[in-house]
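Dear support,

We are seeing what looks like truncated structure output for some complexes. This example has two components. We would appreciate it if you could run it in full and send us the complete C-alpha cell output so we can diff it against ours.
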Amino acid sequence: MTDTPTHTDSNPNAPISNGVDSTVCDDARCDQPALVAAGIDHAYGDVNVLQSVSLTLPSGTVTALVGPNGSGKTTLLRVIAGLLDQTGGTIRHRNHDVVRSIGYLPQQPAFRPGFTARETLSFYAALVGADEDAATKHLERVGLKEAADRPVEELSGGMIRLLGIAQATIGNPPVVVLDEPGSGLDPGMRVHVFDVVGELAANGAAVLLSSHDLELVERSADRVAVLDRGRIASEGAPTEIRDCVDADTLLQAYEATVTGETGTVRVRGDSS
Amino acid sequence: MTTGHPADNDVEPIDREDKREDGIDERRPPTVSPSHLIEAVARREIRTVVRTPTFALLAVVLVAVLVGITRLGGGARAGYVPATADLLTPLELLVPTVAVAFGYRAVLDDARRGELDVLRTYPLTPRQFVLGVYLGRAIGLLAAIILPLLAAMATVALTETPSIRFYATHAGSDSPVLFLRVIVLTAVFGLVVLAVAVAISAIASTIKNGLALALVALVLLLFGADLALVSGLNTDLIGDSWFVYVLAASPNSAYRGLILESTISVVSGTGPRAASPLVSVFSLILWTVVSLIGATVAVSRQS
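Here is the complete output from our reference environment:
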C-alpha cells in the first residue's frame, strides 16, 4: 500500500482521502464516532501484523477487541493510541476541544514507586491542568478511595490496574483505549472493572478494550471486533456476531470465526 | 507525551454534557502552559530525589569526603585557595560520579515501566518532559553538591589560621569569595554531567545497558579526554598555542581550567594561562545543550 499513513485530528464526516476507505461517515449512521481508523496496516520488518484494519469507535459505547494471542490486538491498540506509527491507513479523531484526545491503559500498568496512588494520579492530573481533587474523584470512581494514600508498590495487581484505568481517564479523553483491563484479576474485580468501563461509556467516552473474557465482553460491550491474523474477521454488536454464524454464545461465534486450532499460539510472519 | 499529531481546527467538536454523571467536570482549555507541564514533571523528580535514600547517602558521603580532605590536606588551616587545590582532583572524580548517579536512570525507569508510553497520551512534548526531568534532578543534585562544599568552606572558616578577613578578591589574597567561585563552578560542572547522564538514561534500553553506558561516559570524561589531550600534545597534533582552547573540549578539563583561572591563578599571580575561560564556558554550555537535545530526540523516538 502506498498511502501515506496519517494519525490526525479530523472530521470523520469528511471523506477519507487516502484512497483506502472512501466511506463518508455521517453522524446518524455512525452514532458520533470519536475515532475512525481506516485501512490500518502495521508491519514489524517483513512481518505484517495488521492488514487493512478499519474500525470506528462511536462515542458513548464500549467496543471490545477479541482475538487469539498474537492476532495483533495490542499492536492495533497501540497504533490507535498513537504509540506506534501505522505503515498504512489513517486514524482520525473527531474531538479537538479537549486537553487529552486519548487515554491509554497498557497491558501491564506500572507506576513510579515511592508515590501514593493519589500522588501518582495528581501528577497525571497536573499534566491536563487539573488538581488533586480531580485525581481523588477519579480514584473514587474506580473504587480506590480507601487506598488513595497507599504507596503504589503496596497495591495489589488488581488495584494497580484500577489505578491504571483511573489514569487512562484523566483529562476526560473522548477515546479510552484499555489493553486487557481485566487481565489477572479475580472474577469480582473483573466485573468491577467492566462496570467502570461501562460508566466511562455512559459518560460519553468511546472505549476500546481488548479482552479474553468473552462472557464479560458479551455482557458489557456494545460492539465487538474479532481480530484474526491481523484482520478484522467479524465486527458488530454481540448479537450480530452471534447471528452471523448462528451461534448461541459469543464464545461459540468466536470459535467459528477464528481460523486455526485453539490451544496453539500462532507466530506471525511464518506464514505471511 | 503527545505524538504531535497535526490537528484540523475547522472540525466541529462533539457536543459534550456540561456535567457528567459521575460529577467529574474536567473540561479545561485545550492547552496547558509549557511551564506548568515542565513544573509538574520537575516536581515529580524532586519528590523522587527526596524520597530516594541513596541520594541523601551520596550527599552525606560527599560531605564526609570533602570535609575530611579539607582537614587532612591542610587546606583548612592554610586557607580557601589551598583548600581548593586540595579538593580539585577529588571534585573532578566525585562530582561526575554523583551527577551520573542522579541522572542515569531518570528517563530509563519511566521507559521500562511503560510510563513513557502513557505520558505520550498527555499534552506533554518530549522536550518538556526532558526539561522537567533535568530541572527536577538538577535541584536535587545542586543540594548534594553545594551543601558538602559549604561544609568544606565552613571547615576552612572555623580552623583557618590566621583568620581571613578579606571579602573582596585581588591578586595575592585568599578570600571566601574565591571559594564561592569554586562552589558555583562545581555546581555548574555537576549540571553539565547531569545533562550527559540524562541523555544516557534516554538512550539506554535496560538498567544494565544504562549502567554500562554511564560507566563508559564516566571513564571517557574522567580519563579519556585528558589522555587524548596529552596524546595530542605528545604527537604535536595539538599546537602549544591551541592547547588552552582544546583543554576546554571535555567538561572535566573545562571545569579544571575555569577553577585554575578564576581561583588559583588569582592568588598565585602571573604565569602561563591555564585555560581560556570563555571557550571553557562555551564548551560546558555546548555539552549541556547537546546532551539535552540528544535526550529529547531519544525520548521522542521511543515507542
